[in-house]
Structure formats: C-alpha cells, structure tokens
Amino acid sequence: MIISSAPNPNNCPPRLILSLKGLGRSFGEREALRDVNLEIHEGDRIALLGPNGAGKTTLLKIIAGTLAPDTGRISLNGLTPSQARAIPGFLGWLPERAPLNPDLTVREHLTLTVAFLGLAKKEATERIEFLTQALHLEEKLGRLAGQLSLGSRRQAALAIALLVPPQLLLLDEPTSSLDPEETHRLRETLASFPQTVAFLISSHVLEEVAKVTNEALILKDGSLVSQKPWSDFPMDPEEGYLKEVSSHAAL
Q1: Do β-strands 30-41 and 91-94 pair in parallel, antiparallel, or remain unpaired?
Q2: What are the chain's domains?
Q3: Buried-most residue among 14, 151, 186, 233 (CB within 10 A)?
Q4: How far lies 169's CA from each of 78, 148, 221, 234, in Å?
C-alpha cells in the first residue's frame, strides 16, 4: 500500500512547510551537498534515497538545525531551523544515532519531552500510553537508556520523536535495528498521524519506505538527481530506484 496525498476539501493549495534554495555543504575538500533545491508542502510524504555517502544524513541534519549549510537558504514555514526547533511540536526529528541520555530511564525521557511540548497531563498520559504500546516499550519504561539494546534505544527515540504529530517529521533510517514486528508497528504508528503531517524519511529499505510515502527523492554525490511519485516508477521500488540511480552514473 502506498500512502496517498492529504485530502484538501477546500481546494486550497497545501501550505509550504520547507524551502531549500541552492543548499550546499562541504567537509574539507569533500562536497557533501551541492545546489540542492527542494520544497515540501503540508501532507507531502517523501522518501529520501541514495547510495551511501550521497548526502542524505547531511541534508536531514541541516533541515533539523543540527548542522549549518555553507551556501544557500533554508526556510521552515518562514523560520530558520533553530527557530523551528524551539517551537514545541513543529519539528519531529529522529537522527540515525538515537540521542538518549544513558543515565535516564525511558519513562524519564518521555516525561521530559512532554513537559517541553507543554502537553496537558491527560493528553501526555494518553500519548505516552499509546506509543509505548504501539512500539512495544511497556517493559522498558523503567530501564536506563544506557542499558538498552540498540534496537530498544531506537524504539525509545522513535517514541520521543512521535509524541506529538509534528508539522514536519524527519526520520533517518527509522527501521535500523528493528525486527519485522517492530517495523510493522512503526508503519502503523505513522499511518495513525494526521494526513497534514509532512514526512521526509531516509531509508535503504525501499520496499518498506514505499509503503508510508508517496514520492521518492534521490540524492547522488550530493546532488538531487530525481524526484518523482512512486507511481511513476515502471517497476517495483527497488528495481525502479536502481534504474534511476544508474541513469545518473556520470555524475
């Protein structure tokens, strides 16, 4: 199943959430991103694809405000990334490595997050209960993050990122270290979000990411080389992706 675009009963154009113009970033002599232009609107569900080293994680970090670009402009609903991050519930962000404090329990992480988000007690309790059940974290709430397995830390970080449906959700390899059952739970959790939430999800598991997005964006050698709906791929997601990447082999 491929997620469809958000319904628009009033026939109003979807609101622009993210705008990138001429974005570039280098690390020493290595050019990680080069002249990236991208717009994401309310309800867009986009898979961020590309070979290792294509610039996917760098791009997500810049959007999330944890890394500054060298060139170009970025706007999140008219805000800078740092301003957007300061607004509770605007941006949901799961980096590739879960940023958990090893000396705090999973419950303490969730409690601190709902306090930052300003959720009322009843809503906070309901969201924590829903996500701990959905991601199978009930038995891990009292455990220190430093004592969790890699997969369990990933689940806890996912719960934190998903506590409130944000306007823009950034996920970097969200199914990494998750088993098939946990991956299925994540898919169901994402499907429960309002269709106005925009997704940008980096993943190497094409069959899975195609189930929760409607469009594929492909980076190669730091450049955006392709952006098209999954429905425009002439074959299954993996074969279509490989064909698209190979067509830009000269880059």
Answers
A1: unpaired
A2: 16-99+167-246 (3.40.50.300)
A3: 186
A4: 17, 24, 24, 28
Task: Note down pLDDT in tens along the chain; length 251 residues.
Answer: 233 344 444 567 789 999 999 999 999 999 999 999 999 999 999 999 999 999 999 999 999 999 999 999 999 999 999 899 888 889 989 898 877 999 999 999 999 998 888 888 898 899 899 888 888 899 999 999 999 988 888 889 888 888 888 999 999 998 887 888 888 888 888 888 889 999 999 998 888 899 999 999 999 999 999 999 988 886 677 777 777 777 776 54
Q: How many residues does the chain have?
A: 251
Q: Under a CB-based contact definition with an 8 Å cutoff, are residues 219 and 57 in contact?
A: no
Q: Please, where are the H alpha helices in the chain?
A: 56-64, 81-85, 106-117, 121-134, 150-161, 180-191, 206-209, 237-246
Q: Cα–Cα distance between 241 and 243 in angstroms, integer? A: 5
